[in-house]
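Structural prep section.
Before we set up the soaks we want a predicted structure of the protein with 2'-monophosphoadenosine-5'-diphosphate in place, mainly to decide which crystallisation condition to try first. Input record follows.
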Amino acid sequence: MTDRNQENKSNALLLGVMGDPIGHSMSPVMHNIALEAAGLPGMYVPLHVKPEHLAEAVTGAKALGFAGFNVTIPHKVEIMKLLDELDESAISCGAVNTVVIRDGRMKGYNTDGIGYVRSLREEAGELTGRQVTVLGAGGAARGIIYALLKEKVAGITIVNRTVDKAVQLIKELNTSDVVMQTATYEELSQYLPQTDILINTTSIGMHPNVDETPVAAEQIPEGIIVSDLIYNPMETRLLREARTRGCRTVGGLGMFIYQGAYAYEYWTGQDAPVSLMHSAVLEALN
Ligand code: ATR
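Run finished without errors. Recording the tokens verbatim:
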């Protein structure tokens, strides 16, 4: 990659994450270790920003000379109207998690979906031509489906409790290259045998409801790839049961690491030290 911050070489790179709450964010640990390893002078700080102060905070970051920042809950949608430009990823996902400030202009990106897909590819290999079933049709599903479409998967079945939301999502992200359809949870047994990759984007199985699972163990086809975006707990009941069915599993932590890796690459113009970031987060979580 080219060094996109050549003009700022003499300055320390100011980065951070705006959210409310922000105390438990793992992003500072992950980015500071990456900056240090690359020998880049700079710092990534947690920024506690209440919704009513978001506009002031964004203006302030620009005035202070920040190179960019992440935004997390609850600012991912609101921030969109405060920026000068939106990348296609942000427009398609309807949300921003990464802002790059260059020459006084602020551009918003969404690296969640592409980050997830990069972590999935690491485990699953090429995604082209694969049949994917996505559980859920909310914000997380939107970002992931956007990124899966770019990988030219063969087909995507969206399974959602509220079917209308899945229908709407297909309308908005529609492409002629990939066959997309909706299904209900009751119809899962019909669709799962043709599935190569099953992805849970819902909160079913998330702490503290760790005994819940969106798919009964006996319904999971043997030997497929099963992925869960949840990373608390790191191994959900879905993933545990999938492994007993001989499936390869992909947890949610990789999505967090790789969304950060893409953001780091946008800000610094350099490849992110992904395995170092991963071990720093694991250590901080334990
Ligand atoms: P996120 O940004 O994490 O995707 P969201 O936009 O609130 O959050 O979406 C949550 C998704 O999980 C939705 O698809 C939701 O289904 P509905 O659209 O029917 O609400 C799904 N979800 C959450 N809890 C669920 C449950 N108990 N059973 C089935 N689906 C559930």
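Observations: The chain is about 35% helix and 20% strand.
Flagged for discussion at group meeting.
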